[in-house]
Amino acid sequence: MKVPAIFKNPQLLTAISCLSLAGCALLASTLAWASTGTDDVLVQLRADDLQVVQAGEVVYQQNCASCHGKQLEGQPDWRTRTPEGLLPAPPHDATGHTWHHADDLLFEITKYGASVVINDPDYRSSMPAYKDILSDEQIIAVLSFIKNSWPDDERQWQEEINGNQTEALLPRRKSSSFLEKFSQ
Ligand code: HEC
Question: Which has the closest alpha carbon to 25: 143, 108, 123?
């Protein structure tokens, strides 16, 4: 699939996503988030490190597959809220929107949960926050496994977002020992 030109323009993408996708709040928050972040650590995934990816697959099957699907396919009708007002789990493959988000945002959604990342304590989601369940290394591994599964076009587009964020955020985060550990 070719990535449409509108994806190169985040504001336009957000506006269009808001018309068509239930996940609009998360996507819109990406823009606000880019300058702040939930924590002060810039995480980079390791989707080309096969050892990390393999470890991530195990974490995925044990912790995520029950909702996001064994093949990353998500739950049926994932764009439609249930009568209780909750969204079903979206796919993590190229048909979903996980690849619309930078590495660090994916890490923060998984670690802290969507409501913390979008700074809305009233936002309800069935997605657990994994900060007391998985280590940072395990979260990086599982997301690296997911990222490794994306086709070239989606990978390339997501790398562009990462590049922009790395430039914006790296100088003030350079001293983090966590960052040093994972950027080697
Ligand atoms: C109990 C079901 C459930 C489990 C288990 C679960 N998730 Fe989710 N996940 C969701 C739902 C539902 C959403 C949609 C977010 C919302 O409710 O707004 C979501 C959203 C996400 C998103 C954001 C995707 C996007 O495009 O915005 C990421 C990243 C994610 N999950 C990663 C994971 C990972 C990694 C695991 C395992 C460690 C996991 N999830 C386990 C239900 C689950």
Answer: 123
DSSP class per residue in 29-76: HHHHHTTT-SSS------TT-HHHHHHHHHHHHHHTHHHH-TTS---T
Count of domains observed in the chain: 1
Q: Which of 10-24, 67-81, 146-160 has the lowest mean pLDDT?
A: 10-24
Contact 37 CB / ligand 1 (< 6 Å): no
Nearest Cα residue to atom 7 of ligand 1: 127
* 132 contacts 138 by C-beta, under 8 angstroms: no
Structure pTM? 0.79
Question: Rounded to the nearest 10 degrees, what angle do helices 24-33 and 10-20 cross at?
Answer: 160
Q: Tell me, using a 6 A CB cutoff, whether residue 127 lines ligand 1.
A: yes
The answer to whether the beta carbons of residues 140 and 46 sit under 8 Å apart is yes
At a CB cut-off of 8 Å and minimum separation 6, what does 167 contact?
Answer: none
153: Cβ–Cβ under 8 A, 6 or more apart, which residues?
1, 2, 3
Output the pLDDT for position 140.
Answer: 98
Under a CB-based contact definition with an 8 Å cutoff, are residues 70 and 61 in contact?
Answer: yes
- Nearest CA residue ID for atom 34, ligand 1: 64
Domain of residue 174 covers: 5-183
